[in-house]
Amino acid sequence: MSRSALKKRNVPQKREKGRPTGHFRGHLNGRKKTEQALRFSEERFRALFRDNPTMIVTLDADLTILTANPACASNLGYTTVELEGMSVLNLFFEDDRLAVAGQLQACLQNPNQVRHWQFRKIRKNGEILWVEETAQAVYDRDETLGLLVVCQDVSERRRAEEEIARLNADLAARAADLEYANQELEAFNYTVAHDLRNPLNIICSYCQVIKELCGDNLDEQCTGYLQGAYDGTLRMNRLIDALLNFSRMGHIELRRDMVDFSALAHEVAAELQLGEPGRRVTFRIADAIVANGDANLLRVVLANLLGNAWKYSAMREE
After folding, report:
1. pTM attached to this predicted model
2. Which of 141, 164, 296, 308 has the fewest CB atoms within 10 Å, i.e. the most exposed one?
3. Are 134 and 116 in contact (CB under 8 A)?
4. Cα 128 to chain center, whole Å?
């Protein structure tokens, strides 16, 4: 290689005036991409803010509305121009404003916390609506602290909740009235049962005395009348027992167990036959019938079923 060629090779090339180096060009490209990404992000946020059907406002530290999206303005009956610059507290029901201010100040004092609440707002026409709000403190580009508040109308849900609460209160009141009525009915049942048993016992005693003293002097027809009166007192006593048992059923705690249903039926049948030993009645009760339930209540069922069969077959000879 010639000396002149070697010399030319070792001499650094002169930079063209006005052309950036590769490193500088890369820095410019990176900054341009960052600016584009930031611009895209801001445009996306503005679109989300503008087109969101949920009410959104931004506030400064004095609780003045900086921006309000169209959904917020439309729901409250204002224009966005009317809302911007207004104190947000003016949008709330007067009795709620102090509590709202406290919640918003708490957001400013705790920037990392998201807070939720429900309060009443007032539309421009004076109509009241319940809103559920979510708020958090945010910083703008100048590192100035403000608030982002997202708001949703929950008036219908609130009315439904209030209606459910009212219905529950009415139901509780009716349950209390029913409980009182049941107590009154139970007391009445015991009183009536006591008052009815006294004359029945007297009639039953008289029937027995007449039969013992005058039985030989009574003809068959009179003896039948006497027996009928005596049997009637027994049936009346059973009805009184059924009435008292029924009044107590509402206070019996349900106790489920395996119950020998056949044995219960035999017991009820024996009681019926004991009350009227002169009746010729045949009971056919299958053995080993087992049921899962409350023995006391199942016995009431059997007593009613078999008692009805016993009563309505009374005119049959057998």
Report:
1. 0.47
2. 141
3. yes
4. 26
